[in-house]
Write a structure and sequence with these properties.
By secondary structure, this protein is α/β, with parallel strands linked by helices. It has helices spanning about 35-45, 70-85, 155-160, 170-180, 195-205, 270-285, 310-320, 350-355, 370-380, 435-440, 455-465; strands at about 10-15, 50-55, 95, 120, 135, 145-150, 165-170, 185-195, 215-220, 230, 235, 245-255, 255-265, 290-295, 325-330, 345-350, 360-370, 385-390, 390-395, 405-410, 415, 420-425, 450-455, 470, 480. Helix 1 (about 35-45) runs parallel beside helix 2 and helix 7 (about 310-320) crosses helix 11.
Length: about 475
């Protein structure tokens, strides 16, 4: 990390977010994008070289009527952009494409009034379909360039764009082409929506001559209190669901970042906002039935890389519904937190369960050997994916591959490698194309049996069965990491 001590050069401030996933409106537990507007207005007036950048996935969030999905998010974003343009600040607001922008088809080229940055989605003759980059000349005399980049191998995106005779091309090639067109820049920022390990690989492939300084990343919902540094490039990410934003203050001199200071700012309603909106929600929920009382927060979106209370609840529900030895679900399927404020309880309503599990996956079951289950856990020790029920284990990442799981039990008894155990998971993760990523097993190595059970309905029934739900926020100690 470079020192933030006084140095010569011009200052630049980047306020960045990613994976807003439609959480743009205020509630008793979260702020809306109107709060962001206030923050930016004050900052932009003070700092002439300040920018706001969102690295993909505006869409794909709360439960909405079918005819409002993507439409409402886009309407809010465009109004937000219009407000900033009215203040003469519109050219300092940027958004790049994420995979969920393609959940409802191909967004029109002009759908985003701010422009949608994406350099590597191109036509048959290799012309950028959206805006590949933007150059902003600041009042302080800096030339700042932003390039949007999107994951190259998403089956959903590839299916959508193929119908329009579009294609994805290499991110590296797209960066090189864009920078050749952009000319000399004082600060070069990539806005990349992809798995973090692919972003790291991209950074490794960028030669120093290209002059890339910053990568504002999205997709993994990670919170980097301090940036990753790869090949001399700083990589930032700020959680998800509009729970926080990042702000990095830079000093740029002669085309180099000579100083930076990063901070993560968490967003939450003021006590007055909380009380007012809590009352409003009570009124809004009069038509809904209370299914269960939540006494402690169910948290999952900020604790993806570890056991968490939402994962414990969901996997317990899966195992309760199927009666199998073990249940798992991928952390990425946990799409919303349910915070409980001190001295309060939270009433889980019927509609909350479809928000909790918005993808409507079916449950599947399979028979696995103890050795296969250990293989899953060994994979998770390196790239954590699965919340668990019926299973406890301890990992030591200092051990060599194949030895990182130092203890594992099912039903309180040590796992026997040759014994057959039953496991339930969701249908998405067990597809052939997803097995290696989410279960660290070869496709076809397990014969999965489909069920008629839908995840959100299982969660609803399990909550109704429990009546009162109270899990420790960071989990029950099912997964332990040796310090």
């Amino acid at each position: 990390m470079l020192s933030a001590t006084a140095v010569r050069g011009e200052t630049v401030t980047l306020v960045y977010q990613n994976d807003l996933h439609g959480w743009l409106f205020p509630s008793s537990t979260r702020t809306g994008i109107d709060r962001t507007l206030l923050v930016l207005t004050q900052l932009f007036e003070k700092e002439q070289s300040a920018f706001y950048a969102v690295s993909g996935d505006l869409f794909g969030g709360p439960l909405l009527p079918e005819n409002m999905k993507s439409v409402s998010e886009l309407a809010i974003w465009n109004r937000f952009s219009k407000e900033l343009r009215a203040l003469g600040l519109g050219n300092r607001v940027l958004i790049s494409a994420g995979n969920h922008e393609f959940d409802y088809g191909l967004p029109a080229r002009d759908a985003f009034s701010s422009g949608l940055l994406c350099a590597n989605l191109v036509t048959e003759d290799n012309r950028s379909y959206y805006v590949p980059y933007r150059i902003v000349n600041t009042k302080e005399g800096l030339k700042v360039g932003f390039i949007g980049l999107l994951m190259e191998d998403s089956p959903r995106i590839l299916s959508v764009i193929a119908k329009k005779r579009l294609k994805m091309v290499s991110m590296l090639t797209s960066v090189e082409k864009a920078l050749a067109e952009m000319g000399s820049l004082d600060l070069t920022v990539l806005m990349v929506h992809d798995h973090i390990y692919d972003i790291i690989r991209l950074a490794d492939g960028l030669s120093a001559e290209l002059g890339v300084d910053i990568i504002l990343s999205g997709h993994n919902h990670e919170v980097f209190d301090q940036p990753l540094v790869q090949n001399g490039i700083y990589i930032f990410q700020a959680g998800a669901m509009n729970n926080c934003y990042g702000q990095v203050d830079l000093v740029v001199d002669k085309g180099r970042v000579v100083s930076l200071k990063n901070k993560i700012v968490y967003l939450k309603p003021s006590p007055l906002e909380h009380i007012m909106l809590r009352v409003k929600e009570k009124v809004d929920e009069l038509d809904g039935k209370t299914v269960a009382i939540l006494k402690q927060s169910l948290l999952g979106t900020f604790l993806r890389g570890q056991e968490n209370s939402l994962g414990d609840f969901v996997t317990d529900a899966f195992r309760w519904a199927t009666g199998k030895d073990v249940a798992m679900t991928n952390s990425a399927s946990l799409r919303i937190d349910f915070p409980v404020y001190p001295g309060e309880v939270f009433e889980l309503k019927e509609g909350h369960f479809k928000t909790m599990a918005p993808f409507q996956n079916h449950l599947v079951t399979g028979k696995l050997t103890g050795a296969q289950i250990i293989q899953i856990l060994e994979g998770d020790a390196v790239m954590f994916q699965n919340q668990v029920s019926g299973l406890t284990y301890k990992i030591d990442r200092r051990q060599p591959p194949g030895k990182r799981v130092v203890e594992a039990k099912i039903g309180g008894a040590p796992i026997r490698m040759s014994r057959i155990y039953t496991l339930t998971h969701n249908s998405y993760c067990t597809r052939d194309e997803n097995m290696e990523r989410h279960l660290h097993l070869k496709p076809g190595s397990v014969k999965w049996k489909p069920t008629t059970l839908v995840d959100s309905e299982v969660l609803y029934n399990y909550a109704r069965h429990l009546k009162v739900i109270e899990y420790p926020s960071e989990g029950e100690g099912r997964i332990v990491t040796v310090p």
